[in-house]
């Protein structure tokens, strides 16, 4: 009999606890945190938007730079072999890609020593790589800074919790600690999310840029080999 009463009471307590449970909402967690935590999360959100803008802007630029006509080098070879340098330059201007600009730089140096042509192409290549990597380093900065900013929010949240607890006259109360703890946890999560997104975006852009650079180098070597061929 006593066992049955205890079991019934336990069921009622569990049912009441279940009905009192609150669903976890990110917006509520942020809004219930301290103002300092909300400011940090707003800063992280701005960094996230900035990182997304840089990523999509660069991915479109790299995609455009990687578009090269498969027959471009064959046409260049035909024009150079026929002595039609002007026609080759016109073709490069129509193509308007990093590869075509490098080839155009070499075509403008035809008649000079091969070392001078190679140097001119290398200098133009550095400029093209710089254009491709524009603002990419900012993504690396965001991926490293965001977790640290989140950790700063964690420290601030813990300080707030300890301060509120020290100035409380009711002793240890979870309601007193909750504001600071919400700040500590939400800023940490937000910082890690932004950092992970920034890190993945940065590495993807680096990989795509490297592929374009390799293609530029391969076509430049192919062009120089063409100039070394006996007439």
TrEMBL record:
Residues 95-217 form the MotA/TolQ/ExbB proton channel domain. It is a multi-pass membrane protein. Keywords: Cell membrane, Membrane, Protein transport, Transmembrane, Transmembrane helix, Transport. GO terms for cellular component: plasma membrane. It is found in: Cell membrane; Membrane. Pfam families: MotA_ExbB. The keyword DNA damage does not apply. One of its GO terms (biological process) is protein import. The chain crosses the membrane at residues 39-56, 136-160, 180-202. The keyword Aminoacyl-tRNA synthetase does not apply. Belongs to the exbB/tolQ family. This is MotA/TolQ/ExbB proton channel family protein. It comes from Spongiivirga citrea.
